[in-house]
TrEMBL record:
Keywords: Copper, Disulfide bond, Metal-binding. Disulfide bonds join 83-87. Transmembrane segments: none annotated. PANTHER family: ELECTRON TRANSPORT PROTIN SCO1/SENC FAMILY MEMBER (PTHR12151), LINALOOL DEHYDRATASE_ISOMERASE DOMAIN-CONTAINING PROTEIN (PTHR12151:SF25). It comes from the Bacteria. Cu cation binds at residues 83, 87, 172. Pfam families: SCO1-SenC (PF02630). The keyword Mitochondrion does not apply. One of its GO terms (molecular function) is metal ion binding. This is Electron transport protein SCO1/SenC. Belongs to the SCO1/2 family. Signal peptide: none annotated.
Length: 210
């Protein structure tokens, strides 16, 4: 009986120590992360594992680097202009979030990277941007360049062009990434996030970086 009591007592002490240590670790982790109070997404390896340097072509046929594109906080979406429904809705949502942030005095880029470079020429991207968001930065490149960029952001896509090389659909992921200058990718947003929620969460990161 006495031994059982000692075991129970030691177990209780161990539990308290584990909880206390865990609380200290979580507190230190949050304190060490300048965006800790803003993050809602958790991924294996951390968000810093997303992204890599690139050089792509914008809708003005200019070659631009990641440093030029991400000179401001940026909402980044991977899609294609021939997408019948999902991409236009998502890009429109991102554009509305950018406008809401602008009304708050926060300057954020709205970025679209095609996953269909064969059809998404600079001219096609220009027409798409004019409809979606006049401030949209739309990017294309060679198939190899797009493959590398998509892989860096862990974006899955598949061209279903085996039967029809012109009129085909593309399977793809629909996350929007938030990239901060000098910090890399810090967050991502799913399709269910509203423009207002995206703007509020993005503003948290932008203000925390100041």
């Amino acid at each position: 009986m006495a031994a059982d009591k000692r075991i129970l007592a030691l177990g209780a002490v161990a539990t308290v120590l584990v909880l206390a240590t865990g609380g200290i670790w979580l507190s230190q982790t949050k304190d060490s992360d300048p965006f800790g109070q803003c993050r809602k997404s958790v991924v294996a390896g951390g968000m810093e594992a997303f992204g890599a340097p690139f050089t792509l072509t914008n809708q003005q046929s200019q070659r631009v680097t990641d440093k030029q594109v991400f000179a401001k906080p940026s909402l980044v979406y991977f899609g294609y202009t021939f997408c019948p429904d999902v991409c236009p809705l998502d890009v429109s949502r991102n554009g509305e979030a950018r406008r809401l942030l602008s009304e708050r005095g926060l300057d954020v880029n709205d970025v679209f990277i095609t996953i269909d470079p064969n059809r998404d020429t600079p001219e096609a991207l220009q027409s798409f941007a004019e409809v979606q968001d006049p401030e949209l930065i739309a990017l294309t490149g060679s198939s190899e360049e797009i493959d590398a960029v998509a892989k860096a952001w862990r974006v899955y896509y598949k061209l279903n062009n085996q039967d029809d090389p012109e009129d085909y659909l593309v399977d793809h992921m629909t996350n929007t990434f938030l990239v901060m200058p000098g910090q890399g990718t810090v967050e991502y947003f799913g399709r269910d996030v509203s423009p207002e929620d995206m703007a509020t969460r993005t503003a948290c990161f932008v203000n925390a970086a100041k």
